[in-house]
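re: ur question from the group chat, yeah i did fold both. here u go
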Amino acid sequence: MLALFGPEERNSHEPDRTYPPMMIRTLLLTFFLLSGLFVSAQWRGGDLSFLPSIETTGFLYKDAMGNPIEDVPQWMSEQGMNLARYRLWNDPERLYHALPGVVQEAQRMQEAGMDILIDFHFSDSWADPGQQITPKMWRHLPFDEAKEAMACWIDCVMKAFAQQGVQVAMVQLGNETDNGMMHPHGAMDGGFGNLASLLQAGHEAVTLASPGTLIAVHVSDIHLAPWYFDQLQAEGYTPDVLAVSNYSLWHETDLNVLSSAMASLSNTFSRPTFLAETAYAWTTDWNDWTQNLWWTGSESDGYSFTPQGQLNYLTDLDALLTTLGPTQCLGWCYWAPDWVSAMGPESIDGSPWENAALWDFDGVALPAWSAFTD
């Protein structure tokens, strides 16, 4: 237990009382929201989970002048990126997404001056609206035991970061949990009760291990979010931060509508929002034999798939979200700016994101990097 007041501040006639961390967090969150002091500046981040695997190929990231970048984390920080997001899988085949690798990368980014966001997938591989597969070690446990195992995992993870000197600014409990998480335990076949119970347990585990860390819950679509968070609230749970994805390829194409919807969501639940994933293409060309996800005909009105169009899209997005202020929106995170094609021009297992990365096919930094500048 943590004392809300020190002994010298407590009235001597009052009984000795302590307050649980969850209560303290609620009081602090309310204060921050009312005072506008939630964060000193909004985040302009990047999900950099691919970076270590790309670096092992020998791919050379270059600045806008074509000069090799010797220290990629430091260079990104100097461009204005102030948050690094990492997906964390429980027992993955690729160690880059396992705890030791993620801790190592988080250390690099923190040393470069970035805050850290950890995206718990609660899976051994990708978790998204199409698949929420429970880690194999928990899959056959009864619900209560699976929930306990999840909370224990969170505790171990947060302590591992702390032991290495990494201060985690925010965590996501699950990734794009539109259909719940950790199926069948957190599936929504019977409503939101089990999902809310898992999230509450996860929230408490983070709070006990790292009281200063913000806790977000993440869905894939701003237009789904009001109903989703209302259902969670009805079950007694509301996270610190309401996180959403928005890709014009699949979601809202009008940035003004997106901004207005995020403001409304924040006002409805008295919580800040966060755009946890976004991106935009800079070309429709290919640099390998891996099919790209962004294609001609999926451009947003007014934003071409060109380097200038990508820059304009991010600049306008940033301006709209900045206007909301940190009490309504904590900022945005570009997904996979580092996921270039690094496996050769004939690779069929290269990057489907190469035309939405923030480096061109020659490894030269694109103009969109200037959108990160405060």
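okk and heres the other one u asked abt
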Amino acid sequence: MPSLLSLFGIYRIYGAILSRSIKKGEIPKHVAIILDGNRRWANTKFAARKFGHMAGADTVENLLEWCHEIGIKTITLYVFSTENFERSNEELDEIFALIGERLEKLLKDERIPRYGIKVTAIGRWELLTPQIRELLNNLEEKTKDYSGHYLNIAIAYGGRAEIVDSVRKIASYVQDGKLKPEEITQKTIEQSLYTSHLENPEPDLVIRTSGEERLSGFLLWQSAYSELVFQDEYWPDFRKIDLMRAIRTYQKRSRRYGR
């Protein structure tokens, strides 16, 4: 059997080949990722659930570096959905404590100013704890003038909830006489979504880990013409090489936008 050292060598060679290969093609400008599989990863390690979430958070920190190295301008991460609020109070406390801890760490991360990363959160902020809302506000304020990279955090986010909120906003415009029903267009809807103020709201590539093959309400409107790649790895096991594999798959596809 090959030794760990030889396996590491093979991994490095394969990674170098992949890196050269994807540089010859178009790098997606916006990659959105459904971070799935933290709890199942913990189960495979016979570890407590919270260790899966912690390992997943570590992978997110590595992802920032990988995206900079590869040249991905925008990433949107599905961190916590509106449906996730159905989990037990114990798990919610664990998750929110971890999110708070990592947001505080992100505020101090020297890569934010060095790479010029603008951080934006999308979702139903009112459902979040005061501490997390304050941290997100601080991050957005601190990074509002950056334009090197864009990090969008989908938290307390649901695609159906976003569309419901969009419809309510448009209905209020009609009710107030600011808009006629026949004047409603696709652009009207786009301008009322959580992502309306983002630099590049529509992902070129959507990745989901853990082997599940569905969007689970993630960016339902925005991903209409995104390329979808589903990978078997649980999120804590996601590596730079997996990101490059997804990009290579993206590059092999022909995006026709219905034409």
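fwiw on the second one: DSSP finds nine helices and six strands in the chain. The chain has one domain: 20-158+201-250. idk if thats what u expected
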